[in-house]
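Hello,

Our lab assistant flagged a job as stuck in the queue for most of the afternoon. It eventually completed. Since we weren't sure the result was trustworthy after the delay, we are filing this so someone can double-check. Below is the sequence as submitted and the structure that was eventually returned. Let us know if re-running is recommended.
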Amino acid sequence: MGEYKFYVVQALVGSEKRVYEALQAKIASYAEEGAEPKIRQVIMPEEKVVDIRKKKNVVRPRKILPGYIIIEMVLDEETFWFINGIRGVSGFLGGKTPFTVKPQEVEYLKEMVTESEKEKPRPSVQFAKNDNVRIIDGPFANFAGEIDHVDEAKGKLRVLVSIFGRSTPVELKFYQVEKT
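-- returned structure --
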């Protein structure tokens, strides 16, 4: 059998989970048959982010590389056509001669995932000073303004809103604004 290397498979955005599960099932079938597995591991790196839905914080996973799955495997004709035949797979990165990924790059991705699991989930929408926003909730709804300060720990922003021709600072929560 050949050498294990890392390859990147392109999946249709939204079908990564289905492709991931099909590859995991193939790994399990190798174990059931008692055969040497040609696919060793499948990596779909994710991080946890906070979305605001109905004024509540909801933690959900977000793919670090949407549309891509990393596979450690022995590439031969059988595995090439098996993976290309999975519903939702566009093909290998590199086409008929797939590119390999260095193990150091895969380790870096795994470390990123491990670090993000240790940290507090961050908001899915990132706000920065001087971003233009529109207020969508509260007494200043439909006003536009510019972010003056961001407090990610508390999930609050200070937005400068022009009222009667004068900039007025307004404290708002993340869910009360949207980027323009």
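-- support follow-up --
The delay was a queue issue, not a problem with the job. The result is valid. Helices lie at 16-33, 77-84, 103-118. Residues 4-123 form a domain with the Alpha-Beta Plaits fold (CATH 3.30.70.940).
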